[in-house]
Amino acid sequence: MGATYVIVVDARVVGAARLEPTADAVEAGVWIGRSHRGRGIGKVVLTHLRDVAAKGGVLQLTASTTAENTAARCLLDRGGARITADGTDVAAILGL
Question: If you average pLDDT over residues 13-22, what whole number do you get?
Answer without folding.
Answer: 97
